[in-house]
Amino acid sequence: MTEAEIGTNLSAARELLIAGELVAIPTETVYGLAGNAFDVEALAKIFEVKERPYFDPLIVHIHSIEAVPMCASSFPEWAEKLAQRFWPGPLTLVLPKNDNVPDLATAGLPTVGVRVPNHALTLELLRSLAFPLAAPSANPFGYVSPTTPQHVAAQLSHRIEYILDGGPCTVGIESTIVGEREGKPSIFRLGGLSLEEIREVIGEIEVVNSGNIIAPGMMDSHYAPRIPMILGEPEEAQRNFGALRFMEPLPEIDLSHQLILSPSGDLHEAAANLFRSMRQLEAMKGLDAIYGELVPDVGIGRAINDRLKRASVPRKISA
Length: 319
Ligand code: TXA
Ligand code: MG
What we know:
Layout: E1 5-7, H1 10-18, E2 23-25, E3 32-36, H2 40-50, E4 59-61, H3 77-86, E5 91-96, H4 103-106, E6 111-115, H5 120-127, E7 133-134, H6 149-156, E8 162-164, E9 176-181, E10 184-189, H7 195-202, E11 206-207, E12 229-231, E13 241-245, E14 258-260, H8 267-283, E15 289-292, H9 301-312
Parallel strand pairs: 1-8, 2-8, 4-6, 5-9, 10-11, 12-15, 13-14, 13-15
Antiparallel strand pairs: 2-3, 3-7, 4-7, 5-6, 9-10
The structure holds threonylcarbamoyladenylate (TXA) and magnesium ion.
The site of magnesium ion (MG) has 3 residues, from loops.
């Protein structure tokens, strides 16, 4: 396949999707690799292009809360409350699936992850289609998610035809996933919507974490960049090391090898810069490793720390 075109031509994107092809789409969180959620062949292409294992279910994107019945057989009260409050936005709800949704999309699970992304271009695209769009993050499996069209092109350019350009992602970290576990709403993955914001709407809720792969975003080593990351600080000067810092650089490391997520200490800005910064550090020649720094563990900071911790463990699953 030739190189993917990057552009803002909605009708070109629409035609490709109707023809069963894949298109990379912008969202406020990260770019998605989209295909017709009701078309098994399009779904199979998503797994193939991403080299994604079939046990990892996809997120289905819809244009509004009214479209939930297209994919879900019921809409529990807690989920409806969250949807009313936070959609469009960085929230995925895991709901009982209906028969429109092929088993391939959900990896055989009886539930489906659904979300309304907060991006004008993609919402317009979704409204123009008669089907929802299944879209995992548009990166090869196991790698950090793309937050610009150029990130998508850098890795998937010869595997897809079109990348819809919606600019850099404003949130920059994947959606928060909420589903039901033992009859109670639980957070399966921390992301762009904070634990605190969710608690304000539905009260106490637990983050169910690793050990039990409900969402493979929970797998260790899922967001790993291609260069080792060490959480902490060196004891002496280190020449071939880089650093990914929250507000201030480290004295032990060459300034040109350091990136700051948010000089003013704004966690939202830090999230928006996270994946891009990981890619930038990785592209610097000759670095042996990166020192990473955890951010304050509140709000979206929890999701940033979650990604930093995953990026820093040895990879167990190769991309
Ligand atoms: O922000 C996002 O969520 C982005 C954009 C493109 O919307 N998408 C994204 O997709 O991060 P992906 O495939 O990289 O991660 C989707 C996660 C996976 O870990 C998947 O297992 C989980 O959602 N998921 C999907 N359906 C699920 C289900 N029925 N039960 C539990 N987890 C589910
Ligand atoms: Mg992903």
